Amino acid sequence: MLDKLSGTYAPRPSAGPHKLRESLPLIVFLRNRLKYALNGREVKAILMQEHVKVDGKVRTDSTYPAGFMDVITLEATNENFRLVYDIKGRFTVHRITAEEGSYKLGKVKKIALGKKAIPYVVTHDGRTIRYPDPAIRANDTVKIDLATGKITDFIKFDTGRLVMVTGGKNLGRVGVIVHREKHEGGFDLVHIKDALDNTFRHQTIQRFRCWYRGWKAMGVFAKG
Fold it and tell me: Does domain 102-154 have CATH number 2.40.50.740?
């Protein structure tokens, strides 16, 4: 018989900031990953007590779609988690400190001008942030303060940077950009070398920037 908790019968994420196939419902996170609940009713009881926050905001929807780089906070147990991919492309539970849980990284999807020529950027999690640094461009990564929702730092998408692949057959692989191929009228390709000196290439639309700048990979990559 089919498992009633997976496959066709898996909880369907609600509409939200992340795509259907790029998100993890809170019910799966609490019940199946953390084992803090035995069934859906217990998950709803936990959520209705407002013990769970995603990116600093209380969420009571059991199928709310948490996605890549989201910070999940459990105030009752004083725990913080960041959703990242493992080397096989699956969501993994990565515990972080309260300090690391105060920010998140966002990939810039586009930059444009709004009403009255106000510049803004749109990140991979659906955020629209006005008045960004003029040097920020598409594919760059920004550091977002969850308390204020403002950009506190950013890094350019360029060779020599540490990246994690967030799509395609190389989903979850981490490496350093060694070369970029620009194709006019098409997707740019980047050549990435991982820790084992294996080189692979991928389209830039499926790249997520992370950086070293005094921080230990910003505390976003799971150990091992």
Answer: yes
CATH number, span 7-98: 3.10.290.10
Q: Which amino acid is at 122?
A: V
| Host H or E run for residue 45 | helix 40-48
- Tell me the fold of 162-212: SH3 type barrels. (2.30.30)
Contact 172, 159 (CB under 8 A): no
- Give CA–CA dist 61/205, Å, rounded: 30
Secondary structure class of 111 (helix, strand, coil): strand
Q: CA-CA distance, 73 to 51, in Å (whole number)?
A: 8
Return the residue matching tokens 């294996």: 198
pLDDT by residue (tens digit) across 124-173? 999 999 999 999 998 899 999 999 999 999 989 888 888 888 888 888 88
CA distance 58 to 60: 7
Backbone φ and ψ for 46, nearest 5 degrees, come out as -65, -45
Per-residue pLDDT tens digits for 63-72: 999 999 999 9
